[in-house]
Amino acid sequence: MFLLAGMAGMHIPLLVRGRSKAKKPVIMTVNSPIKAEMAGTCLTHEHVLVDFSGADKINPNSWNIDQVISVVKPYLERVNWFGVQTFFDATPAFLGRDPELLMRLSMDTGVNIVTNTGYYGAQNNKYLPQHAFDDTVDQLAERWIKEWKRGVDDTPIKPGFIKIGVDPGPLSDIHKKLVNAAALTHLQTGLTITSHTVGAGAAFEQLKLLNEKGVAAEAFVWIHAQEEKDLLKHVEAASKGAWISMDGVREDNASNYVEMLLNLKSNDLIHKALISHDAGWYSPGNDPGGFFTPYEAIFTTLIPQLRKKGFTLAETDRLLIQNPSTAFSISVKKS
Predict the structure, then answer these.
(1) Which of 10, 42, 61, 232 has its C-alpha lying 20 to 30 A from 33's C-alpha?
(2) Is residue 65 part of a domain?
(3) 335 within domain boundaries
(4) What is the average per-residue pLDDT within 232-241?
């Protein structure tokens, strides 16, 4: 199985650099690349497992893959019943990223799963390894590019996007390094940059750094944009080309997301919106995995509310199908 994943991924750099005659954009899953147009309904920011031990304490042996699968598999089967075909797992390295777990879940459920490369600096750098501080920007980027070329965590499983995380701005030097390393990685791989970002100040600072490195705003996903209460900032960032990810949908807050999406729609920017739950969260050490949040409020609550507010089927399909396909298609986007 791993051999198939590794062989399938070997040709992707040729697609990115434009030396292949292949015309269809692709998304890299834990099994193989798929045509972006075949990704179907997507959840673009979710979690299977997260371990908050910290970069200096985390141990992959602290969870049992079979036990995790027994808990998580029914939830993925449930979203598959809702029509979800592709699931982006946003758990980064040193926080519980487990590509073998994701591959097994994908094979067991038939859901495409996408993993990531990159480091998460939010929450005062608790989840950054020491070498993130010691490395230069180029050295840090090379680590992430190596995962693209050779696979994640000694497997041939390739990442399908870059995941970083920063604290609210102004950005610290280490967080600027993460952004700059992500820029270099994007330019070499074509992987989309997603960044845990609370507040417009940090979002716009990152967009400026990316532009200085020659990366277009279209390569950047502002994760947790729902935390920014000034909706004009959503409009401003989307107008620059950034993706506005509103990814904390629950049954009890869906009306807030309706307001944010209506704001983008009224400004002809619904084509820059992404929605997801930021749900799941199997927690190692808690039997059986802690309180696991389902991935379904978008389908049971948000979409019905959007339809009542005048969103057409084509517009909700854009949020869940066309926008993710475009946002995560692998291609270098230069400013």
Answers:
(1) 61
(2) yes
(3) no
(4) 98
% of the chain beyond a pLDDT of 70 = 93
Q: How far apart are CA 273 and CA 265, in angstroms?
A: 9
Q: Is the pLDDT of residue 9 over 60?
A: no
Strands 161-165 and 193-196: parallel
**Number of folded domains in the chain?**
1
Nearest Cα residue to 39 out of 103, 83, 3, 92: 83
Angstrom distance (rounded) from CA 323 to CA 117: 21
CA distance 296 to 290: 18
Q: How far is Cα 73 from Cα 216, in angstroms, rounded to an integer?
A: 37
Q: Residues 97, 184, 176, CA angle at the centre, nearest 5°?
A: 80
Q: Produce one character per residue of 254-271: b if its CB has 16 or more CB atoms within 10 Å, e if not.
A: bebbbebbbbbbebebbe
Structure tokens at 305: 């509310």
Q: Is 65 exposed, middle or buried (0-12, 13-18, 19+ CB in 10 A)?
A: middle
Cβ proximity of 156 and 2 under 8 Å: yes
Assign residue 82 the CATH number of its domain: 3.20.20.140
Q: Return the HEC string of 283-297.
A: CCCCCCCCCCECCCH
Contacts of 89 (CB under 8 A, 6+ apart): 46, 47, 48, 97, 102, 113, 114, 115, 116
332 assigned to some structural domain: no
Q: What is the pLDDT of residues 181-208, one digit of tens each?
A: 999 999 999 999 999 999 999 999 999 9
Give the span between the Cα atoms of 25 and 202, in whole angstroms.
Answer: 30
Residue 334 lies in a domain: no
Q: Hey, what are 238's tokens?
A: 């989307």
Could you list the residue range(s) of the whole structural domain that residue 16 is in?
A: 2-327
Mean pLDDT of 286-305: 93
> Each residue of 288-305: b (16+ CB within 10 Å) or e?
ebeebbebbbbbebbbee
